[in-house]
Amino acid sequence: MKTRATAAAALTLAIITATVSTKAMAQDNALLREFAALQAGSFTTAAQATVSPSYAVVEAEIVRIWPDRDDGVWMYQEQAILAAGDKIYKDGKAKPYFQRVFRLLDMGGGRLVRENYELKDAAQVAGAYKKKTPLDGLSPDDLILGGCANQLERVADGYWRAHIATCPNTYRGATHMTSLSVYTSDTLANWDRGFDAAGNVVWGPEDGGYIFKRQSR
Predict the structure, then answer these.
(1) Domain with 34 in it: what CATH number?
(2) Dihedrals φ, ψ of 120, to 5°?
(3) What pLDDT digit, counting tens, does each position of 22-32 carry?
(4) Which terminus, N or C, of the chain has the lesser number of Cβ atoms within 10 Å?
(5) Residue 5 backbone phi and psi in degrees, to 5
(6) Helix/strand/coil percentages in the chain, nearest 5
(7) What predicted TM-score, i.e. pTM, was given to this entire model?
(8) Which structural domain, as residue segments, surrounds residue 194?
(9) pLDDT for 79 beyond 80
């Protein structure tokens, strides 16, 4: 049986997806490509962790997948912790704590939405970003709805903002979560926080989000 949080997320996604216009997607593919290009790449929070040791050293790998599909732009993301405080995780990259697939859709009028999905067997595809054709052999049938969709806004040339105003969440006693992200040509900043019924932060950094800087490979 679905939890209330899952059911609410599914309903939100269904409403958003139902409004997608195939015509709009075809007209504004340039927007999808622009945002996808900002997302794709290798990123690290090492610089932030050096200045603020309370933040872990995290690496994010984001690649495009299934380029032949015509139902939006699909991408795969892995995140791994390499160090936290004095602790070093030598096998961190081999054991990512975060693996998601997301689909970018053009809603028309300059608006995009990002649907978030979990993999049914994520551990089996760890490191997929290194392959020439990541997640080849898989399809959307191998995914599970992974929460609320992000609303995406193009603020300026090469500058995007994404947010989830509120989404049901039960992690560590939370009742809901919020998410705010900023994307530029060299930076991916993300601030996710969970709140309890009284409005107290129960998970996520209180002082600001994680700042990932693009790195060369």
Answers:
(1) 2.40.128.590
(2) -65, -30
(3) 444 443 488 89
(4) N
(5) -65, -45
(6) 25, 45, 35
(7) 0.84
(8) 4-215
(9) yes
